[in-house]
Every structure is written in structure tokens, then in C-alpha cells.
Amino acid sequence: MTDITTEQATAAASGAAATEQFRTKRRSETTAADAARVDTLVSELLTAAHDIIRRHKVTYAEYDVLKSWLIQVGEDGEWPLFLDVWLEHVVEEVANAEREGSKGTIEGPYYIPNAPSLAAEATLPMRDGEAGTPLLFQGQVTSVDGTPLSGATVEIWHADDDGYYSQFAPGLPEWNLRGAVSADEQGIFRIHTVQPAPYQIPTDGACGTLISAAGWHAWRPAHIHLKVSAPGHQLITTQLYFKGGSHVTDDIASAVKPELILDPSPAGDGKSREVTYDFVLDKA
Ligand code: MBD
Ligand code: FE
Known about the structure:
By secondary structure, the chain is α/β, with parallel strands linked by helices. It has one domain (1-284): Aromatic compound dioxygenase (Protocatechuate 3,4-Dioxygenase, subunit A, Sandwich). The protein has seven helices and 14 strands.
């Protein structure tokens, strides 16, 4: 074993990586907002905080705890984690309220663009003997009118059997369990991977401190992240979960929807599982 594989995953290291990723991937339309909008949104947020302070007679001791905690979120690089776990689901709900095709859900902090390109039937990059039940995830990408979408891309990323994401935990190959699959002329894809494990958000950083101080749990159900796109269509960012899995009904990030739950069946070989899930994209 090399040094790097024995290194522990820490909140601060994954927080720093998530902060860095965000700086490079940030949606460009979000760069400008007009002053009136900033005034409205920030004023209402502050008024809501003022009301809470009055209603609950917040003390100076509590105010100081809040201040130190906010400072710690920044020092641990956990703003991406905090925001994606506790706010993003409502941003997603508002953004995609009018969509007719497949459901989306939050992106979370661990997407990396430009993953290796893979053929329509492919195995995700993984280590020899990668732990976890082998899973064949297959389906077809169509338009809302039913047309199969040739030229569709299925970007996929997920945690390993220990709940770790490549590039956010030490010791994993760079693109482990990440890929950009080009579907065939019929929009069909067949992706061979392993089932991810439930994900526990880091407990040793500021988000972990909040979770234990509030008596919450730190878990997300096992999930596969996807971005599905095709020419002339709206990109869908989504996640898929597993029926009966731990925390499917109490996701810390509130990102589960009934339409997003897979129920894989045993494959013919007796040791793997397979599931079909089709994506329907709205026109651009
Ligand atoms: C994750 O894997 C995730 O998907 C989200 C939304 C937040 C933290 C970790
Ligand atoms: Fe995730």
C-alpha cells in the first residue's frame, strides 16, 4: 500500500476540492444579478433571520456560536457541501417546475466535467476487483415526443462501495466510477458499473458539527448521479436511488423523488444486477 491510499479522507480536503471544482464549473448566467433583485432577496433573507432572533430570543452566546460556526464552514471549504445539502433541492424544484420529461434532482458538490468518453456499451473506469455488486444500468434517451435521440450523452458519476468519490477522497484513481457515455443512434446506452454505497457527509468538519449539535443524521441514500443531454434538448441533472435502500426515505439532502427509485433485478449470471431506466428530454 502506498502512502496515499492510507491517507484518511477529511472534511477539509474534500471541502477544498469541492470549492475548487465549483470555481471552475460555476454556471456563467449566475454571474450577474441586478441591484433590485439583490436588494429584494438579501433583505427578505435578513428579515427572516431577524424574526427568528426575536421569536426565539437568541442570546449573545448563541450569536457567537453561529459566528464561529460560519467562520469554520469557510475554513473547511464546506460552503459547497452545506448549500448543496440544505438549499439546492429548492433551487432545483423552482428551476425545473415546468419540465415535462424525466425528473431531475440536485447536482451536489462532486460533479467533474470532461470525464473520459465511453462507447454506448461500456464499463466505467474502476479498479481491478472494484468492491460492490456489479450493476448493468441501461436505457434509452428520447425526446418528449417519443423520438429516440441519436447523439445523446449520459454523464455518470457515483461513490464507490465505501461511499467515496474519486477526486474528493484520497487514494482513488482520478476518474474512478466516472464517465461520459455516448448513446447509440437510437439513444440506447448500456453501462456496466458497481452499486454505490450510501454516502455519509463528512462528520469531522463544520457540517458534521451542525449535524451532531442538532441531533440529525449525516446520510444520503446510495445514489448514481447523471447528466443526460442531446442536441436541441434541455440537459437533465438527476440522481437515481435504490428501492428499499437505507435513507431513501430520510435523505439529509432532501433530493429523493418517487420517480427516481430503481428496482434492479438479479442478472442471469447470479452475481450481478441489472436495471433499465429511460430518459425523456424536453426540447430546448
Ligand atoms: C453527495 O454525494 C451528494 O450527492 C450531495 C448532494 C451532497 C453531498 C454528497
Ligand atoms: Fe452524491
